[in-house]
Design brief:
Helix content is 83%, strand content 0%. With 41 residues, it is mostly helical.
Length: 41
Amino acid sequence: MRRERRAAAAAMAAAGGREEGEEDEQGRKKRLWPWLRLRLR
């Protein structure tokens, strides 16, 4: 479970970095929350 969580966090960080050249925390959170909720169900 812990490993799965870490992988998800890494994937989120990679996707966020790829999509936006610069770090936009709020934009990333807005985009990731729906995805996170689906994953955690």
